[in-house]
Amino acid sequence: MQININNLSFAYGAKTIISNLSLTLNSGDYLVIRGKNGSGKSTFIKCLLGFNQVKAGMIFYDKVDITAFKSWTRFGYVSQSFDDFNYEFPITVGELLQISSLKKTNESDRLKLLEKMGIFDIINQNINSLSGGQLQRVFIVRAMLNNPEVLILDEPTASIDKQNKIFFYNTIEELHQAGLTIVLITHNDDIEELNYTHLLSMYGDLTTSFEERGVEVKEGVL
Ligand SMILES: Nc1ncnc2c1ncn2[C@@H]1O[C@H](COP(=O)(O)OP(=O)(O)O)[C@@H](O)[C@H]1O
Ligand SMILES: [Mg+2]
Fold first, then answer.
1. Is 38 touching ligand 1 by the criterion CB < 6 Å?
2. Average pLDDT over the chain, rounded to whole?
3. Phi, psi at residue 30, to the nearest 5°?
4. Which atom in ligand 1 lies closest to the alpha carbon of residue 39?
5. Contact 145/151 with Cβ under 8 angstroms?
6. What was the pLDDT predicted at 135?
7. At what angle do helices 162-177 and 132-144 cross, to 10 degrees?
8. Which of 13-17, 130-134, 193-197 has the lowest mean pLDDT?
9. Measured in angstroms, how far is the CA atom of residue 104 from the centroid of ligand 1?
10. What residue owns the CA closest to ligand 1's atom 3?
11. pTM of this structure
């Protein structure tokens, strides 16, 4: 899996948010995107996921232009705010996960994921009764159900307390070690403890920097 971003620019109406951003991400990379509120982090992710439409030639997945791309189940995504979700209809955590499985995941895989995220004991609870942190973890499990190649998390620790944050980052690290490509967005500066491989900084004035951590020269680059 390779993601190529090629001079990406994006505007909401007349307001430009992203200007000439280029980067490449390969399987197994762990990208942290940081920048203060309003710097365009979520906007960038929405471009990557096709919610914000970009012009042909700007984003490629394995050389397929995003405007022709169809395999969205290759991405697991947990959005920053859950306002888009409507749970007027009462449903349990277990039921929600069951109907969210597009690929055949068996019951025990689902349970393992729940356990890993520390929400095993709320499987029979009504989704509307959960705290923000619990809901977030349920959505992470849901994002993992279809066995994605890339997991994208937009400010996942915003409503999680400090102790759960450490547990959460460890779980993400385990998934990364298992070969999953991670894109994690944060507006905090406490990123040094994360084992990321690439860092995209968005400065909020249309400038960005993209760097590889440790600057290991990869095979095939020279
Ligand atoms: N749907 C939208 N329409 C118009 N402007 C938007 C929309 N979404 C975000 N913005 C604006 O784009 C800028 C970047 O927002 P966002 O990508 O959410 O930043 P971040 O995720 O870094 O906090 C902000 O000024 C925000 O107000
Ligand atoms: Mg955001």
1. yes
2. 88
3. -130, 100
4. 22
5. no
6. 85
7. 10
8. 130-134
9. 36
10. 12
11. 0.90
Beta strands in the chain (DSSP E): 2-12, 15-26, 30-34, 59-61, 64-65, 75-78, 150-154, 181-186, 198-202, 208-212
The string of pLDDT tens digits covering residues 7-21 is 999 999 999 999 999
Atom 13, ligand 1: residue with shortest CA distance: 38
35 lines ligand 1 (CB under 6 A): yes
Considering the domain delimited by 28-39+74-214, tell me its CATH architecture: 3-Layer(aba) Sandwich (3.40)
How far, in Å, from the CA of 222 to the mean position of ligand 2? 36
- For the chain, the structural domain boundaries read 28-39+74-214
Ligand 2 mean position to 79 CA, how many Å?
9
Residue with the larger pLDDT of the pair 65 and 216? 65
Our answer on whether the CB atom of 84 is closer than 6 Å to any ligand 1 atom is: no
Q: Is the dihedral of CA 197, 72, 186, 180 positive or negative?
A: negative
User: Which atom from ligand 1 is nearest to the alpha carbon of 185?
Assistant: 21
Confidence of residue 215 (pLDDT cuts 50, 70, 90): low
Taking alpha carbons only, the member of 92, 48, 215, 78 closest to residue 160 is: 78
User: What's the gap in Å between 38 CA and the centre of ligand 2?
Assistant: 7
pLDDT class of 195 with cuts at 50, 70, 90: very high
Residue 25: pLDDT band (50, 70, 90) is: very high
